[in-house]
Amino acid sequence: MNPKERIEQLMARAKSLNPPQTLKLAAAEFGSRVTFATSLGEEDQVIVDMIAAHAPGIEIFTLDTGRLFQESYDLMAKNQQKYGRQNFKIYYPDTKAVEEMVKARGINLFYESVDNRKLCCGVRKVEPLRRALANVDAWITGLRRDQSLTRTDAQVFEWDEPNQKIKINPLLDWSLQQVRDYIKQHNLDVNPLHAQGFVSIGCAPCTRAIKTGEDIRAGRWWWEQPESKECGLHDNPKFRRTSSPGGTASLPERPKD
After folding, report:
1. Cα–chain-centroid distance for residue 217?
2. Residues facing 61 on adjacent strands
3. DSSP 131-193
4. Which residues carry out catalysis?
5. The whole model's pTM is what?
6. What does the alpha-carbon distance between residue 203 and residue 63 come to, in Å, rounded to a whole number?
7. 37: helix, coil or strand?
């Protein structure tokens, strides 16, 4: 069966399933060849808890880019303590690739152009992700449709062309309120930065709190246009840019305390 046919069958079976049931379906369909990539956001904490309760055989991993907030490391440690260290794998970028990138383009290269920022994301996130996915057929994410312009046409089961894997998005149609209701109901640990206005949390230099009325992804790479705001882990060719804006951007203003 080719991937398209398999996805169509899975979509048909998942039509009436809730997120825990979707995770159980993924575990039954792929066994040890499915994994969950957590970025430690609110959605991901929900999925970690659902996996522990409904599909404990699914492996969980996260990417440590080397430039995360301390609060993210603290949450990572809490997860390891609560769910078991053996259930969490941590992948790191290739040291030589980081050293060469920083030597050639500077420590804060990502502020200078979209191309530089995507290079940094490629080295620190995309390449480690490919290693993490090397021996699986499918991966699970915490994507929600209303998170970003680039995610509006996503599906619960879809083909991930760059990684040549099936991607599973069990919370795709959930609202942020549904995510937070689950967190409250199950008393889950979350990153304390969420309470300070950080909705989407990535690397420290590239994440700020959002203001009232701003899009929930406005705090990620806030100096770029909305269609650029993906790191490459969830690349949507419909919104892909082929080049960066002309010239070099001035250093973005960081949010004030």
Report:
1. 12
2. 37, 89
3. HHTTT-SEEE----GGG-GGGTT--SEEEETTTTEEEE-TTTT--HHHHHHHHHHHT----GG
4. 231
5. 0.83
6. 11
7. strand
The strand pairing partners of 168, in sequence order, are 140, 157
> Residues 215-218: contacts with CB within 8 Å, 24+ apart?
216/146, 216/147, 216/176, 217/147, 217/148
Q: Does domain 3-196 have CATH number 3.40.50.10540?
A: no
More confident residue, 157 or 249: 157
**CB of 76 closer than 8 Å to CB of 60:** no
Count of residues for the chain?
257
Domain boundaries, the chain: 3-196
* CA 110/CA 116 separation, integer angstroms: 5
pLDDT above 70 (res 220): yes
CA nearest to 63, candidates 81, 76, 49, 78: 76
E strand or H helix that includes residue 100: helix 95-105
- The distance of Cα 56 from the centroid of its chain, to the nearest Å, equals 20
Q: Which pLDDT does position 53 carry in this prediction?
A: 96
- Expressed in percent and rounded to 5, the helix, strand and coil fractions of the chain are 45, 10, 40
